[in-house]
Design brief:
10 copies of one chain form a homodecamer.
Chain A lengths: L1 E8 L7 H20 L5 E5 L4 E7 L3 H9 L7 E10 L5
Antiparallel strand pairs in A: 1-3, 1-4, 2-3
Chain lengths: ~90, ~90, ~90, ~90, ~90, ~90, ~90, ~90, ~90, ~90
C-alpha cells in the first residue's frame, strides 16, 4: 500500500551543531535501512528546499506511523501524508 | 531528470457526456504511450479525489511542458510541478 | 484500518431538481449499505454546512478509493482523506 | 452532543525533557479518565504527525471548553473544534 | 448555548430576479421569527459585504443545524460556525 | 458603532509565570472596566482556544484602537477587527 | 473616520456587453458624486488588476455600508474593509 | 524600472473556439510588439500551466497598467505584479 | 508614482526595552522626515494591530526600496508593496 | 534550462552581528561568482522585502539544487523554485 509523504525539516539554529550532526547521521542510517528492506522505495530531494518527497510501501496506517515517528529528525519536521491508490490508466 | 506532478481534474458538469468520454479515452491512450516509453514512470490516484500524483522523467523543462500541454484533459486540469533532485541519503 | 474523510457537496444550482433528487436518493442507499456492512462506521453532519465528516474502516487505500469513487454524488463533492493510526493513549 | 476536535502539539525544543515528560504523563492520565467516563469516545493519531483527531461527547460548549482547557498540554497545542450533528443518512 | 455564525451569500447572477426576491422575502421572515423567539439574538451586517455575523442561542448542535439548514438562502450561502463558551473575565 | 473583534493570545513559554500572571490580572480588570462602562458589551471564549470573540461599541475607529492598544496583553495578541452595520432584517 | 477599502470586480463573461457598459457608466457617475462631496477622497487602480484601493471618510459604519452597497457594480465585486486610525507618528 | 508579472489565463470552456482563437492571435501580436520595443524584455511559460512569468521595463506604474489592461486576454487573466529593485549583489 | 505599503511590526519580546525604544524613536523621526518632504504623504494605523497602511510617492522602485530598507524597524517588519495607477473614474 | 527562484531571508535577531555579516559577505561573493559564470543571469531585489527573485540557467535539477544548497544563507532562507519553459509568443 503506497503513500506519498512530504517532509520539511526545520532544525532550530540554536541547536548545537554536534547534536544536529549526530541526529542527521542517525536519520541517514535509519532511512537507508528502510530503503533496503523495501518499505521506503523512493526518496527525492525537493529542489532548493530542506525537504523531501518520499514513497512508502507499508501494510497499514499504523505501520506507516511507526516508521515516521521513529525518524530521528521527527521532532524537527513537518510531515504530510497522502494515501495513493492504483490509477486506472497505470500500466 | 525527475519531476513530481500533481494533476487535479475539473470536468464542467455541462460538458456533454459523449465529449467528456472521448477526451478521457484519448487521455488514457496518451498517458499509456508515455508510460511505455519511460517518460511517465509512475502514475498514482490520490485516494478520494479526481486527481493523480505522477513522476515524469524528461530531459528538460521544455520537454515536460510539451508533454503536459499535450494532455487531452489539459484544458480541464490544474497542474502543479515540483522539480526533484537526488537525495544524499537515497541508495 | 481507519480513515477520516470530509466530504463537501456542491450541487450546481442549474442541475434539474429531479436529477438532483434521484442522485441524492441513490447516495443515501449507497451510504446505508456501507454503514450496514461495517465499512462506514461513522457519518456526521458538519453543523451549518452541506458537508460531512466520516470514518471509514477498510483493508486498503485501493478499497477506500473504490468506495468513495462509487458515491453517486462523487462528481459534485470535494473530498479530503486523512489516514488515522492507533493513539498510544487510546484505551 | 458530539464535536470533532483536532489537536496539534508543538513542544518547544528548549523545554527541559524532564518537564516535557511529566506533562505528557499527566496528559495521558487525563485523557484516559475522560475516555473511561465516556466524554472522549474516540482518539486517533494523525499518521505522520504529532496530532490527533478526537470525538468528544459533552452536554454543552462550556463543558467542552473546560475539558480542553484542562489538558496538561493545552499551552503547547493548537486546537480546532467542529460541532457535529446527526446526519440524515446515518443509520 | 451560544454560537457565532458567519454567512456569506452568493446568489448566481443568472437566477431570475423574481425567484431571488421571493427567496429573500422568505429569508427575512424566517430570520425575524427566530429573532423573536430568542434563538437568533444578534444579527449584524458585515460592512461592505453581502454577509452577516450572527449569534445563535440553541439547546444543541442538532437544533442549530436544523435552523441553519432551513434558511431559504441556505443553498446560496457559505456558512461557518464557531462554538462559544463563557469567558472567565465576562461580567 | 459596533465592531466584531477576535483576539488570539500567544504568551511565550519563556515568559516568567509571575510576570504572565500579573499581566493577565491587569487584563481582567481592564476588560471588566470596559464591560461596565458599556463599550465592551460582549466577551465570549472561543471553545478550545486561548482566544475570544468580542463586540465593541465605540464612537470612532480611533477610540477602538485606543482601547485595544491599551490591553495589557496587547503585545502578546493577534487581533482582527470587522466593522459591523445594522442588518436590514434585524428587529 | 477613515477606512481603506479594496474592491475586486468580477463581471461574468456572459453578461451582455450593453448591460455591463450601462452598469459601469452608472458606477463612474456614482463614484464621482462621492468623490466630489468628500466621502471618497482617494481612488486608485491596482496595477494589472480590475481592482481598486480606496479611502472613504464617513461618520459611521452604517454610512459606509450604505455607500458601498449602493455601488452599481456591488453584485459583481468582492469588497474588503479595513478601519484606519490616526498613527502616532503621522504629522 | 522593472516589474515581475505573473499572468494566469482562464478561458471559459463555453467561449466559442473561433472567438478564443481570434483573441489569442491578437494577444500574440500585441505581446510581440511590446517585446520588440523593449518594454517586455522577458516572457516565460510556467511549466505545466497556462500561465507565464514576465519582466516588464517601463517608466511608471501608469504605463505598466496601460500595457497590461490592453492585453486582449486581460478579461480572462488573473495578474499579479511585483515591483523589482536593483539588488546590491547584482553585477 | 504612488504605492500602497502595509507594514506589520513584530518586535521580539526578548529585545531589551531600552533598545526597542531607541529604535522606535529613530523610526518616528525617520518617518516624519519623509512625511515632511512629501514622499510619505499618508500614514494610517490599522485599528487593533501594530501595523500601518501608508502611501508613498516616489520616482522609482529603487527609491522606494531605499526608503523602506532604511526604516529603523525594517528588520522587525513584514512589508508588502502594491503599485498604484491613476483610476479612470478618479476626479 | 531556466528556473525562477524566490528567496526570502530570515536572519534570527539573536544571531551575533559579526557572524551574520560574515555569512552575508560570503553570500555576496558566492552569488557574484555564479553571475559571472552565467548560471545566475538575473538577480533582483523585491521592493520592500529582504527577498529576491532570480533566474538560474542550469543543465539539470541536480545542478540547481547543488547551487542553492551551497548558498551561505541557505539555512536562513525560504526558497521556492518554478521551472520555466520557452513561451510560444516569445521572440
Amino acid at each position: 500500500m503506497l503513500f506519498l509523504v512530504r517532509m520539511d525539516v526545520y532544525v532550530p539554529h540554536d541547536l548545537p551543531a554536534e547534536q544536529a550532526n549526530e541526529i542527521k547521521a542517525r536519520e541517514k542510517a535509519y532511512s537507508q535501512d528502510l530503503q533496503r528492506d523495501g518499505r521506503w522505495p523512493h526518496l527525492w530531494r525537493v529542489v532548493g528546499e530542506y525537504a523531501n518527497y518520499s514513497i512508502f510501501d507499508v501494510a497499514s496506517n499504523d505501520e506507516l506511523h511507526q516508521l515516521l515517528q521513529g525518524l530521528p529528525l521527527f521532532p524537527f519536521m513537518k510531515i504530510s501524508v497522502t494515501p495513493l491508490a492504483k490509477h486506472p490508466s497505470a500500466i
